[in-house]
Specification:
By secondary structure, the chain is mainly α. The chain has 2 domains: about 290 residues, no CATH class; about 140 residues. Helices cover about 75% and strands about 5% of the residues. The protein has a 3-stranded antiparallel sheet with strand order 1-2-3, with helices on one face. Strand 1 and strand 2 form a beta hairpin. Helix 9 runs antiparallel to helix 10, helix 11 runs antiparallel to helix 17 and helix 14 packs parallel to helix 15. The chain is globular. The N and C termini lie far apart (about 55 Å).
């Protein structure tokens, strides 16, 4: 029986993922939470079955029964999150909470398969992050006046943090992206992304944004917003963290466009993006290497094209149902736990499973955008939009890079990739969205 379950696991995991994804979208048909509740319960069951089956297969194939105890601890954490959100925030989105737990459960499974020690580290960071972010929905939904009060401070703090990273940070893979304080190493730009969204929201939605005499947006306020945004991006470029710089640029572009509603802004932004990309190609050697690898990774398969070619091999080898956990060779891909986690999932869990993860991420993005379009307060509308663009564009950059759709940018896949700072900042963003969802339902 055990051998049969392990042998069929790759098909069962795919079926579970398909049904879970289906319920991510079927809930949009119903308006009331009472009608949606049975679908949320089914999602919870599918999440548990997927997580437990994944660890069961890893335990059976590796012969390490301790993995089942780790699985049990993680299940306790997931149930605690689901129950606490229902108790503390009954108006919060259960779909968002379910998606967080499901994506984290897949992350734990694949990280345990790739690196047991890193999986444990990620689990510890996730537990701490979930505890810390539990208060955020309350702050967002109850202390709006306090959030708006410090708009300029968000921008100044973001610049100062990035400057500290530029001057005191350490170089990782050619980019100065990490900072160590008290023995703890983290990526400051991950947290600055959140501050940056709050800065933009305050600048572009404040009452003083519209000139009372002309009825038009205050030109000086727009210039200040653009200059401070450009300063964030410039510092990231100087640190050679071009992936983060692209995210900041796109977030600023779309939030400013949403505030001014002028198509010329998008056209100008597209032109500026093109010129910046060309300048980056000419100025930075690692960008030229990535572009060359993107154009033809097999031309130098043992050199600059090795990482991307191995990613494509992994995705192709996995086919629709995958090789099965511990049956592939995802560890041949450099930095597979972080930038190339999607490739590892595709190889061992299958392209159908990976496609389901994309659709789940898309459902998160749609929820973010739905809140932005339906919430009454302009300040919160811009925050939701900024977080939606931030999240959606980062998912696009990661998956687009490992599938050779676009050149590699070196950003992580939210909630799935290894990286303590990344997962913590993502959970902060999701907690903020939960607070906005509570405001939306109460309005």
């Amino acid at each position: 029986m055990s051998d049969a379950v392990v042998g069929l696991s790759r098909y069962l995991l795919t079926i579970f993922a398909i049904f879970y994804t289906f319920h991510c979208y079927v809930v949009f048909i119903f308006k009331s939470e009472e009608e949606r509740t049975p679908f949320y319960v089914i999602q919870n069951i599918l999440m548990v079955m997927t997580h437990v089956l994944g660890f069961y297969v890893l335990s059976e194939r590796s012969g390490n029964t301790d993995l089942l105890f780790i699985c049990a601890f993680q299940e306790v954490m997931f149930f605690a999150v689901l129950i606490l959100y229902r108790m503390l925030y009954p108006e919060a989105s259960r779909l968002i909470t379910n998606n967080i737990c499901f994506l984290l459960s897949i992350s734990f499974v694949i990280l345990t398969r790739l690196s047991y020690s890193r999986s444990i580290r990620q689990f510890v960071v996730v537990v701490i992050s979930l505890i810390l972010t539990l208060v955020i929905p309350f702050v967002i939904s109850r202390l709006e006046y306090l959030l708006k009060k410090y708009t300029l401070y968000y921008g100044v703090a973001g610049v100062l943090i990035l400057l500290a990273m530029m001057t005191l940070g350490t170089v990782t893979n050619g980019s100065k992206i990490t900072l160590s304080i008290g023995g703890v190493t983290f990526q400051p730009s991950e947290f600055v992304k959140v501050l940056f969204v709050f800065f933009l929201a305050g600048m572009l939605s404040d009452e003083s944004f519209i000139d009372e005499e002309t009825g038009r947006p205050d030109r000086n306020r727009i210039i200040a917003t653009v200059l401070i945004s450009a300063l964030h991006i410039l510092i990231l470029v100087m640190c050679k963290d071009l992936g983060a710089a692209m995210i900041f640029f796109v977030v600023a572009l779309f939030t400013i466009y949403a505030a001014l509603k002028k198509p010329l802004i998008l056209a100008g932004g597209a032109a500026a993006f093109g010129l910046s990309a060309f300048a980056g190609y000419r100025l930075f050697s690692h960008v030229r290497v990535r572009v060359a690898a993107w154009r033809d990774p097999f031309a130098d398969i043992e050199g600059k094209g090795y990482q991307l070619s191995q990613s494509l091999f992994a995705i192709g080898t996995g086919s629709w149902a995958g090789m099965g956990l511990l049956m592939g060779s995802p560890d041949k891909i450099p930095v597979v736990e972080a930038d190339f986690i999607f490739s590892a999932i595709s190889e061992e869990m299958g392209c159908l499973f990976a496609l389901c993860l994309i659709l789940i991420c898309l459902s998160n993005f749609l929820m973010f955008m739905n809140i932005s379009m339906s919430i009454g307060d302009e300040y919160f509308r811009v925050i939701s939009l900024g977080l939606a663009v931030n999240y959606g564009f980062q998912v696009f950059l990661t998956i687009g890079g490992v599938t050779k759709f676009i050149p590699l940018t070196g950003v992580t896949l939210p909630l799935l990739s290894f990286g303590g700072t990344s997962v913590m900042s993502t959970l902060i963003m999701f907690a903020i969205i939960q607070g906005l969802y509570i405001i939306k339902k109460g309005s």
